[in-house]
Amino acid sequence: MPAPYLEQIRRAKEWQDAKVTSTITPTLKKICIKTVSRHMDVLDKKALDLPISLIKELLQHLNIVDLDRIQPAVNRKGISTSFVWAGILRRISGPRKGSTILTEDEWREISMHKLFNLAFYGFRFGGDTKYLLNVNFNSLLLVMAKYIQHLVLRTSRPHGYFFARRSVLSVLEKGVRCIQLGESTQLREWPSDVLYTLHRLLDHGAARDVIINQSPDPRLLAWILHGRGPRSKSHQCPMESMQGEMVKCCQVPNTAGSSAGDAEAANYQVPEKEEPDEEDNNGGTPCKRPRLSIASAKAELDLTSTPCQCMVPKPLCQMFIPSAGHSTEICHKGQIHSLKINDFRGGVFPVLLPLLPSWLCLHSLSLQSAWTFEEGDALSLAESLQQLSATPGCSLIELSVGSLTHPALMESLLNACPTLRSFSMEIHPVAEYHRAPLRSIPQPAHHAELSLEKLCVKVPKLRTSVESLMCVLLRSPRLTSLHVSGINSSTGFSPSHLLNTVAESNRHLKDLTLEDINLSDCHCAIFQLLDNYCMLEALSLKDCRLLEKCSDKEDVVRQLVNSLKKVSSLQSLNLAQNRLAKTVTVLGELFKGPSPSTVKELDIRQVAAISISVGYFGIL
To answer: Residue ranges of region Disordered (predicted)?
Structure first.
């Protein structure tokens, strides 16, 4: 039987300390600080009467339970614990790249999140572990769990101690808002205790957002979604397969087919009394991606090849771990408000599309993929969304779809659900991208207004039509955020048309990001946008080749500065990767004169520009 988890950490720490003390004799002050840190649960407020310099030293020797408990009192004395939490995070993850500006609470939350993920799966801690000692494991888990709002679940089996302490799970049920599945495997390969945790957080807790990193097993996705949003008469776990058969979502622990790990998880007993632990491609060639197809997915999906029988009709808590819940406890289904699949594959659509029309509580849907969607499949998605939108009580306001083949599909999706407030898409045209979609769906009048407030369109350096984008902008008077990236002008189109449309039709725009678009011939359109009725708070023209064709670059930058000064609402400006060179000195005039710019954040990430502009931007 291996040593308890914290006992292993304590022994490793003692061995590390022994190596140090054999060569260095500790001072009396260090001995006293170390002794006080071990008895903070007794001394507590008395220790805070020490001089501020000593308190700062003491903080670095406390475990995270004591540190978290006394932080409010320490803050009242004008002391921040940011440096302690930053040190803990550095020991766990190593030095952070670049400059990081975080608040005290943010440092603490990130540190607790990292620590909990290590402890939850029983992973080994690296570096100095003094912040984990002089406290029992349950207290340690409880204080970490308080700060977990986003929990990553894997097929690795969690530490057994976690399931013997229902108090920790209860804290997670109250705090976790988002569950992320870090791996994609067959449903039967997920340990029962992980599925039990997923069930408790979704059905007994406050978790409403689900993120799936990889394209999920259709049965796993069906089990997650069943009854947790799409309308269902049953609140129990039985689900019908797509062939109308009753299938079982997972195996019952302690049966002949269950794994040894499942049997072990099922045998965990909740102790009557808790005992403390011991201390311790640039051209015009279209990008060819693999293509998704519902038809091929259905052909490949064989639900009978791996039997998955129906769950027995009893509470899920008893289903996964019989000793974990009371026999009288009723397991109602929770609701999923947000679903994000980061690596979308063909097997998902046959499960997802039939559920969408009745998923009234769905607020946000994101389907990202390295594969391009078939036009017919994208229109099938639009049809399901149209049915959902036509149902009273529809809550969907955010939609993100990656790798569509045709720009016109943007209008098809938006027309299907005109109440969307946020829409994001990426276009990857294939060789026949100019061909019209295979079929159309009923669409409202062309001039119908959209409710869009946020729009993001990315085209990776491919020549494509922007007519659909222009039409959407004309129909979106409420737009406050626009991000357009990588558009390569088609014949007869200039980015000036895009800027003029924004200036005329999107007067409420607060955040404008244009990236990797050639604006070298669009100076007048930029100045006009900034001069007339502009409410911008953030402007980004990253990698837009602003000065590529200028004979007098300083004069153009000076005109830009004068226009920027007129935008009294502007807080953030990004001109990175525009080869500003020596003209950055002219850009410094932004902060001079009787009416300096209100910009507080400036990004000109080019080594030459930064070295020249230090004197001008020191005021920031």
So the answer is: 258-289
